[in-house]
Design a protein that fits this description.
The chain is α/β, with parallel strands linked by helices. The protein folds into three domains: about 15-110, Leucine Dehydrogenase, chain A, domain 1 (Rossmann fold, 3-Layer(aba) Sandwich); about 115-185, Rossmann fold; about 195-295, no CATH class. The protein is built from seven helices and 17 strands. The chain is elongated. The termini are far apart.
């Protein structure tokens, strides 16, 4: 096979991709190029299967001697329902993207979560242990990401869903892990719940200077909050605020005081905040109340 093209013979191993449609798929090009480069007597073919004919197609894979196949949209969930031998991840995610032919039939696997785990650790250099994450949507890709994050020790996963009632698949994916799953409606006019802003911001105290606060995980978005001039170190302040920003929870709700001006010059210590979000508009404006407690250095 050194001449750089695929040759098919009587001993060639057959694999492919099951989906509808699949004429746009790059998988045949990618896999066949790899087979040629590695001098493997394998061939990868597109397998277009119309909705409603998946059961017949899966039976045909083993009957035709295929070694296995990938599964793509819209057949991943139905494949999990049709295949009896499923890996743990395929069960958790209720989706199959890889089939392996065995002597007893087809075995279904899902490689999405391990792939995302490898991306986080090796490509992104991100350690999820004890961290928080924000997911948009609850489809197959989101479920796989949630499983990968939970398995890697994430403390909290916040999910924005159009319909929070449809979160069963996400909860099944992370079941048994210590990760806390919080689900909120995406794009809703009203959003209730305790959330924590993930931003750098300055508290401005009229006549007394400014206190500069830094949350240990931040998105880079900037905002400001103006609070009552009666705030004193260690006191709890409750007030109303309006700000446009992004939401990103921190599991411990603590941030570091990095300095200040006026009365707060050279200030150091910690602060905690609890936010009750009472209204969220589609334009991104969020309304609610915040409880802020400033602690001097050492009082943690």
């Amino acid at each position: 096979m050194a001449e750089g093209r695929t040759r098919v013979g009587g001993a060639t191993h057959l694999v492919g991709v099951v989906g509808w449609p699949v004429d746009h798929s790059l998988s045949p090009i990618i896999h066949n190029t790899a087979f040629i480069a590695l001098d493997m007597d394998w061939v990868y073919v597109p397998l277009p299967v119309e909705p409603g004919r998946l059961a017949d197609a899966l039976a045909g894979l083993t009957a035709l001697g295929f070694a296995g196949a990938n599964v793509t949209m819209p057949h991943k969930t139905e494949t999990a329902d049709l295949v009896a031998d499923l890996s743990e991840d395929a069960v958790r995610l209720r989706a199959v993207n890889t089939l392996v032919a065995t002597t007893s039939g087809l075995a279904g696997h899902n490689t999405d979560a391990p792939g995302f785990e490898r991306f986080l650790s090796e490509d992104a250099g991100f350690e999820a242990d004890g961290r928080s994450a924000l997911l948009f949507g609850g489809g197959g890709a989101a479920r796989a990401c949630a499983l990968a994050l939970a398995r890697s020790g994430a403390a909290t996963i916040v999910v924005a869903l159009r319909d929070p009632a449809k979160s069963e698949g996400l909860r099944a994916a992370v079941s048994g892990f210590a990760t806390e799953l919080e689900v909120f409606p995406a794009g809703a006019n009203m959003l209730e719940g305790d959330v924590v802003w993930d931003t750098d911001w300055t508290v401005v105290i009229p006549g007394r200077g400014s206190l500069f606060l830094y949350e240990r995980e931040h998105s880079g978005e900037l905002g400001s909050k103006v609070i009552s001039p009666t705030l004193k170190t260690g006191e709890l302040w409750v007030g109303d605020w309006t700000v446009t920003s992004t939401v990103g929870p921190r599991p411990d709700r603590k941030g570091r005081i990095v300095g200040g001006t006026g009365e707060f010059a050279k200030a150091a210590g910690w602060f905690t905040e609890t936010i009750r979000l009472t209204k969220y508009t589609k334009e991104g404006a969020m309304f609610g109340t915040v409880e802020l407690k400033v602690q001097p250095k050492g009082a943690r």
